[in-house]
Amino acid sequence: MARKISVSRQFLKKSMFILLFLLLMATVVIHNADSTIRKASVDKLYTELDSIPKREVALLLGTSKTLKNGQPNLYFQYRVEAAAALFKAKKVDFILISGDNSRKGYDEPTDMKEALVAQGIPSDKIYLDYAGFRTLDSVIRAKEVFSLTELTVVSQAFHNQRAIYLAQKYGINAIGFCARDVDKYSGFKTRVREYFARVKVFWDLTFGVKPKFLGEKIEIH
């Protein structure tokens, strides 16, 4: 009986050691991914309209109009407000909205376009990318489908950082206009997911992951 208890304790100690080792490795990987992406966007993020350089096109990254509980999504509202302000300040000439339209009744680009038009943005200055299922897809399609090599990304700062890093890797000169962020409590889950999304960036780049769809060229003019 004593021997069985001893073996069980040894097994438990080994299991705990392996678990702690894996947690340490995960922490290092997440930290390195986060640090690398942050450094890539140094001096490329703007919060003031007066200081941001003019670009022809803004890439507005999509998100859902409402939360699962039916409440308005503040990420959506603040991104739309930022894109509208950028256009009205004549810092961009066109807005390309890239978002998810992968299932019936769910259409991020159209929802954002309607919100922008409601704020006075001319509909003919807005282009829609219905296959921006992920930030990776949105960035690559901006270049491969819409022929953009220079743009202003519009989203919250943490999201802009990741998009700018991806843009650099695919030969796009990108800066970011940062929409207002949500409070720490409301955005906690999003921030946690962001750390894993940053690790996923390096997985995708390493294995050459491509957008789900590309398609014919679309000219913005």
TrEMBL record:
Top-rank lineage group of the source organism: Bacteria
DUF218 domain mapped to chain residues: 59-179
Protein's name in the database: ElyC/SanA/YdcF family protein
Origin species: Capnocytophaga gingivalis
